[in-house]
Amino acid sequence: MFPWLAMGHLTPYLHLSNKLSERGHKISFFAPTKTISKLEYLNLHPHLISFVPLVVPYVDGLPLGVETMSDIPPSTAHFFPVAFHRLQNQVEYLLHHLKPDFVFYDFAGWIPALTRPLGIKSIHHFIVSAASWDNWLGGFKAGSVLYCAFGSERVLRKDQFQELVLGFELTAMPFFVALKPPAGAMTVDEALSEGFEERVCGRGVVHRGWVQQPQILAHPSVGYFVSHCEFVSLWESLMNDCQIVLIPNIKEQYLNAMILSGDLKVAVEVKRREEDGWFTKEGVRSAVKAVMDE
């Protein structure tokens, strides 16, 4: 584990370490020497989680002896990334010695260049977005937020992308959408129809990257899940209390949707044209409203 050296990053990384240790994984946790004492009480598995001390290099402009962003006044904070960058030699030496299977990192973008020649896999685990996309959800009452995601491979056409998010707007509900940019658009922002973000400001978010779906579905504010009905999403939705709306895309997903909406009657599928599978914003709104009926 090699998080950014700030308590708001070190602590979540230690929580993750505890979860992984529950499954028997052995973890070396990189942290500044004096800061380790502030983290030890959070280590629930000291027989599996070992702290590895780092000596933060001195950088002209920083107070002497600083180890984390928490030690630095705002006026000199811009010097700390320089010190963090200069940890590369220490980290490389430790990786040669420890030979881990994986390295988790967030701000140290140079980690993959160190791990690749050593045959070590690097995992970019970025906790800032998780803390943010949690603060936002916490602003709404229980079971009121609609969440939509179609996985890492599904790419909608631009016109269908727009119909989908416009359908969420029509529900008048708060919503959180995590989708890849559609075909024909370089970014999600480019794909949104004119005025959309201004109209849904405060109650609607279209996220541009990867999210922690199990944690989102388990959040008390999330009450509805619009899914493409791929197997993993299918099980994640059934393991939580949210109502399910389905928009399948390929054969396997259509079969899953038939089981959930037909045999099990635990979901509603968005109506589509038979000839080309087109769905409308009104169809999206109708499906969501149908699962809201107690």
From TrEMBL:
The keyword Transferase applies. GO terms for molecular function: UDP-glucosyltransferase activity. It holds the Pfam family UDPGT. Transmembrane segments: none annotated. CDD domains: GT1_Gtf-like. Coiled coil: none annotated. SUPFAM superfamilies: UDP-Glycosyltransferase/glycogen phosphorylase. Keywords: Transferase. Gene3D superfamilies: Glycogen Phosphorylase B. Belongs to the UDP-glycosyltransferase family. This is UDP-glucuronosyl/UDP-glucosyltransferase. It comes from Macleaya cordata.
